[in-house]
């Protein structure tokens, strides 16, 4: 009896060849995005080393990188890498953001707003992670689900709940700022997070 695989009798499994050329393309296509992901979550001085560590992991575990979802896998790995780095070093407060960056960058403009920062700081770590993945990294749908390791519908629901909690935190902050007056700016803030 002959066993048949995806490429024929007793052949190797189909899929991309995970060689140097594959890794070079992976690095060329995604290094900048991974670096930006890391530099938003760690000190600028550490970002190069942490990005290199993410790609070292990608090379070592290259057979685990899902075809078509490479960037999502890299973001997830970068999240673990940064978390491990923070456990080894001093804690970084939410208010501590990298100083370097393009001052016209939308994420830096939004985070410069103290009210948004305060509302964001009231959220749980999971909600913060989901909102950052959606807003900063542009992850939606299947890509977000892959990073969070949940179903597509679960990711959509988690993003919706995180946005709702941010909206509530924004409204609470607005109400605390001007006692007795309705939060007139809450609609503008929630529209920006979508």
From TrEMBL:
The lineage of its organism: Bacteria, Bacillati, Actinomycetota, Actinomycetes, Micrococcales. GO terms for biological process: DNA-templated transcription initiation. It holds the Pfam family Sigma70_r2. InterPro entries: RNA_pol_sigma-70-like, RNA_pol_sigma-70_dom, RNA_pol_sigma70_r2, RNA_pol_sigma70_r4_t2, RNA_pol_sigma_r2, RNA_pol_sigma_r3/r4-like, WH-like_DNA-bd_sf. Belongs to the sigma-70 factor family. ECF subfamily. This is RNA polymerase sigma-70 factor, ECF subfamily. It comes from the Bacteria. It comes from Sanguibacter gelidistatuariae. Coiled coil: none annotated. Residues 26-90 form the RNA polymerase sigma-70 region domain. Keywords: DNA-binding, Sigma factor, Transcription, Transcription regulation. Residues 115-166 form the RNA polymerase sigma factor 70 region 4 type domain. NCBIfam families: sigma70-ECF. Gene3D superfamilies: 1.10.1740.10, Winged helix-like DNA-binding domain superfamily/Winged helix DNA-binding domain (1.10.10.10). Residues 170-194 are annotated as: Disordered. One of its GO terms (molecular function) is DNA binding.
